[in-house]
Input
Amino acid sequence: MRVTTGNDGSVTFACPSPTPSPTPAPSGSVVLSTFTTNATLHVGDLAVAAATVSLSAAPGTDTFISVTSNDPAVQVVGGGVMVSAGSTSAVVIVNVVAATGGAVLTATLNATSLQVTVVVV
Output
């Protein structure tokens, strides 16, 4: 709010127009765009960030991305991640219960699946 006082003692109040927020994309037009990692995981790591999923646009509603591991020793917490409405990415959390050398994580949204390999030592 801006308040100005005139020479004649008058007071004027003005509220600037708010900056419009970006309009989220309709959920049907959002696709999985990238799945990345640079993590080296260690045996006993619990609730550690292993990878990041990104969408092509911010969804209008919370959007669940299914994430699976090809190795039972690398467990994806919650079976995936929720990308919040208005956001474009989320971090995948895993628990590591054994050293296996590596695991392939697969992120899936609708008909699109992307994979990353994480190193486990």
